[in-house]
Amino acid sequence: MFTGLSAFPLTPLANDGVDETAFVRLIERLAEAKVDSITALGSTGSYAYLGSEERSRVARLAVGRAGETPVFIGIGALRTSHVLANAENAEQAGASGVLLAPMTYQPLTDDDVFELFRTVTVNSSLPVIVYDNPGTTHFTFTTELYGRIAELPGIASIKIPGVPADPEQAQARVQEIRAAVPAHVTIGVSGDARAVAGLAAGCDAWYSVIGGTLPALAMRITRAALEGRVSEAMAESERLAPLWQLFVEFGGSIRVVAAIAEQLGLASKSSLPLPLQGLTENQRAHVGRIVDELGLNP
Predict the structure, then answer these.
(1) Which contiguous run of DSSP H or E holds residue 99?
(2) In the chain, domain spans
(3) Residue 90: φ, ψ to 5°
(4) Are 212 and 46 in contact (CB under 8 A)?
(5) Do 110 and 80 contact (CB within 8 A), yes or no?
(6) How far apart are CA 260 and CA 36, in angstroms?
(7) Among 160-164, 215-219, 235-239, which is the least confidently predicted range?
(8) Distance CA 284, CA 258 (A)
(9) β-bridge partners, 187
């Protein structure tokens, strides 16, 4: 299950509550596109802003509308007891796995993070994806910590940040991680602009932000890269450079992806949880021009 394209959909909000209609529309869109898996309640899914009941409801909706597509559920929280409750809710919803980021307010040590993952693997029967996203969690994994955690029973995959752009450096980085973890643990790349570089360097999966809103596009890139048509995949990724630049220009991907979803009618305006304001009207217009120029309208 932990290979290929895993699409990370938004959890759109309306009137400060989960917009269930819009969320279901996104999930069904992903299932119809036949993505390899769906990861609900990742960072793109605003998990950290939702209460436990909202997260439980979103998990049930995702599994219920995904058909035969495996669904992974983000369970990160500041307290271990809350993480375990989220894991139990994900299991009751029928999830195929869980995604765990070490959320922090007080700085975490490597031992703190190892113990978090150990506790989850002891108490949950679901496979666990290690979520390394220092841009949001402010915790950076070492390769050694990858190795320690990956030895725990139940660890299925590691979601790594974007690899270096240089192909040799990217391959060396993936090989370094591969040597530190058991063979059954897959490596998934994140950072959409570097997805092809990661897949070409030997990553097994692309944990994709844009795949949650534009799944057909992400599927084409993934299939080309994993089937050995790397130059084709790279050319498509390079064509999308204006989109990747928007992620940089506007301080991350979530505001841009929300604006795209809103423009395409997949979410209502102001779909992000406050205090996230989303993009200004001028910025939205700029995103709209890029969407039109790249032919990203479905």
Answers:
(1) strand 97-100
(2) 4-229
(3) -65, -40
(4) no
(5) no
(6) 22
(7) 160-164
(8) 10
(9) 158
- Please state, in angstroms and rounded to a whole number, the distance separating the CA atoms of residues 294 and 199: 23
Q: What are phi and psi of 88, to 5 degrees?
A: -65, -40
Count of CB atoms situated within 10 Å of the CB of 287 = 25
Annotate 242-266 with DSSP letters as a single string: HHHHHHHHTTSSHHHHHHHHHHTTS
β 71-74/37-40 pair status:
parallel
Cβ(269)–Cβ(281) below 8 Å? no
Angle between helices 80-93 and 52-65 (to 10 degrees): 30
Both tokens assigned to 3? 């290979």
pLDDT above 80 (res 83):
yes
81 vs 246: CA distance, rounded Å: 37
pLDDT tens profile 17-51: 999 999 999 999 999 999 999 999 999 999 999 99
Q: For 4-229, CATH number?
A: 3.20.20.70
Q: How far is CA 127 from CA 6, 72, 91, in A?
A: 15, 9, 10
State both tokens at 240. Answer: 């999308």
Helices (H), the chain: 20-32, 52-65, 80-93, 110-123, 134-137, 143-150, 167-180, 195-200, 215-226, 230-239, 241-249, 254-263, 281-294
Q: At 170, list the tokens.
A: 């990217």
The residue type of 254 is I
Measured between alpha carbons, how far is residue 284 from residues 113, 149, 288 in Å? 38, 41, 6
